[in-house]
Structure formats: structure tokens, C-alpha cells
Amino acid sequence: MLALILLLVGVAGAIVRPRGAPAWCVPSLAAIVGVASGAIGHPGTVVRPLAAPVAFLLCAVPLATLLDRVGFFAAAAAIVGSGRHLALGLWILGAVVTTVLNLDASIVLLTPLYVQIARRCSVDPFVFAVQPVLLSCLASSALPVSNLTNLIVASTRHLTAVQFLSHLGPPSVVAVVVGWWAYARVVRPSVPDAPLGPAPDPRALVIGGGVVSAVLVGFVIGPGAGIPEWAVALGAAALLVAITRHVPVRDIPWGIGLVAVSLGLLAAGAAAHVDFHGMFSGSGNFDLVRISVTSAVGANAVNNLPALLVALPRTGAGVWALLLGVNIGPLVLVTGTLAALLWQAGLTSLGVRVTAREFARVGGRVMVPALAGAIVTLVVLRPVVGG
């Protein structure tokens, strides 16, 4: 009972942030109480598989910040679309950045860029600003580095980038395509009254494009050569530090890392006392659908990170369905992912207010068809990719 209470307190504290406390404060205190009281057994066993994923998170966001300092994202936004195709171009850019660099990088850097573009084009800022948070779920399954949840699964199950691409690449593409169809009908992005802005900076495209290409290659072949994803991101960041002569110490997301570790400890403590095995076991087509839907509901209810950590030890061959559920599903409640909370806070600082009701209205209507399309694709392709 204590372990369950501590998990609920930790999740609520990360979301509500009493008296303006940092998001990591309450979960960390709850985890300390859990370890000290014995409600969380063997903390080292829990933290060990989280070490590499959290290390990547701490390297990926500064890497994206350095790419932004070079001007890569602004240049890419200027080249991917204009006029009536601007919304689609920004959607494609968001999907690529989320997949290749990490969803937190997409939230942190593309959201203010998209708000700026919307205001320059006399478009409601929400129309473009909602894209990064939608794509943080729809486009974050194809590579281990795309999402912290993927990194945790890849680390604990020893899965490679090639396996992720083969199993979750096609469902992710379907989710992004169906998501665009739903987004265009729910939000109805209007044609801008003004051009996007100046022509893209060739130097920014060359430097940024070269670094992103090298990083992508490193993510795919690096682990096979004994080079973890965090080392690839760190090496790319070091190169950009040398180019920009700027060290983005303030952009290292220590707080999110602490939240991830704390919730991991709390979820492990609670999971040891609750039997969820029947919900996440099985490998038949119906089982995959059940696992995805159940994990999507759980991700919205308690946040996708603890939902994954509770379900993962109880999931066998359905791990790909589990990832689709916890990655794509949490678009109904803004508390479903840390990225969505980060997005909402960022918009508030930019003077754009998004209510929980508005988030649910758009997110739910985009998520349901996108998740359905991704699940169908996963089931249909099983005989081809195996597993």
C-alpha cells in the first residue's frame, strides 16, 4: 500500500508542482522515502537500466539547442514549406526532428519556432504550436533515441535500432500520415497571409544537416560497434560546441532526468505488489490490440513513463504493441507525458494559453485514428518482420 501511495504522490507532484516546486522535487522525495522505508527494494537494479536512457536525454537536448544556435531549425523551417503548404512542411519537419533527435528536443526548440512563424504569418499560434506535442507522440517510436520509453525498452531487452525500424517504423509512418489527416480536419490550418520569411541560411543547412546525418548513422550502427546512443549525441554536441564556442550547460535537463529516475523507482516499487500480468501478456492479434489500448489508457492515467515501467516486466512478445500504446496514446490528458507538460509550460511563457479541454479535444481526435492505424499496421506486418 505504501508503494502505491508513493507512486501516486510522485506522479501527482510532478504534474501539480505544489507551491511552484520543480517537477523533480516531489517524485525525488517520494523515491527517497520508498527506498528508506523498504517499500522499494533493490534500487540499484531499477536504476541500472535507466542510466543509459537518461544519459542520452541529458546529451540530446543540449545537442538540439546547439543545432538551433547554428540556425538549423529556422533554415529547415524556411525550406520545407511556404504558403498553402506551410502547415504540412512544418508537420514533416516536426516528425523528422522527433524521430531522429528525440521528442524533448522537438518540444523545446520547435514550439517557440512554430509560434514565431504563426505570428509572423497572422495565424492563430495554437494552429502550428500544437504540432510538436502531437508529433512527440505520433513520431516517437521508430528509433530507440526518439523517446525515453524506447531507450528503456532497448536497454532492458537488448534491441537494436534496426529492430525498432523494422517493427515500429511502418506503424510510425502510418501514425504520422493518419495524424496529419486528422489534424488537418480538426484544426483546419489556414493559408498564411504573409510569406514565411527570409531564404534559408545555406551555412546552417550544411552544418546542421551534416551533423544530423552523422548522428542518425551513429544511432543505427553505433550500438553494434559498442558506441551507445548517448556517446553519439555527446560527440556531435562536442563538435558543435567547437563550432559555436558555446557550452549549453543551462540546457541540460537535469530535472527531467531526476523525474525519470524517481518515477522509475516508484513504479518498480508499486509494480512488485500488483498483478497486471493478464493485461499485458499474450502474443496473438487480439492480445496486441489489448496491450496497446490498455497501455494507452494507463499512460493517460498515470503518465506514460510509470505506465511503461509497470507493464514492461509483464510483457513478452507484445512489447512493440506496448510501446505504441505508451508512445502514441497519451494525447488525451496533458499530464500523460513529461513532454506535454514541458510544452504547455513553454507556451504559457510565450503568451499562448492552452486549456486541458482544448488539448483533449485536439489530441484525442488525432490520437484515436492514428493509434488505430499504427496497431493495424503492426498486426498486418507481423508475418513479415516476425515477433
Primary descriptors:
387 residues, mainly alpha, 74% helix
Concise synopsis of the structure shown:
It is built from 18 helices and no strands.
Please, could you describe this protein's structure?
- With 387 residues, the chain is mainly α.
- The chain has one domain.
- It contains 18 helices and no strands.
- The chain has helices at 2-16, 25-37, 43-70, 72-80, 86-101, 103-120, 125-138, 148-157, 161-186, 202-221, 229-244, 254-271, 277-280, 285-302, 304-311, 319-328, 338-349, 356-385.
Write the layout of secondary structure elements.
Layout: H1 2-16, H2 25-37, H3 43-70, H4 72-80, H5 86-101, H6 103-120, H7 125-138, H8 148-157, H9 161-186, H10 202-221, H11 229-244, H12 254-271, H13 277-280, H14 285-302, H15 304-311, H16 319-328, H17 338-349, H18 356-385
> Total helix count?
18
Domain module tally = 1
The proportion of residues in beta strands is: under 5%
How far apart the termini lie comes to: 36 Å
Taken in chain order, the helices and strands follow as HHHHHHHHHHHHHHHHHH
Rg result: 20 Å
Looking at the structure, what is the overall shape?
globular
Average pLDDT figure: 86
* Helicity range: over 70%
Uncertain segments:
none
Sheet with the most strands, sense and barrel status = none
How would you classify the helix and strand content by structural class? mainly alpha
The strand count comes to: 0
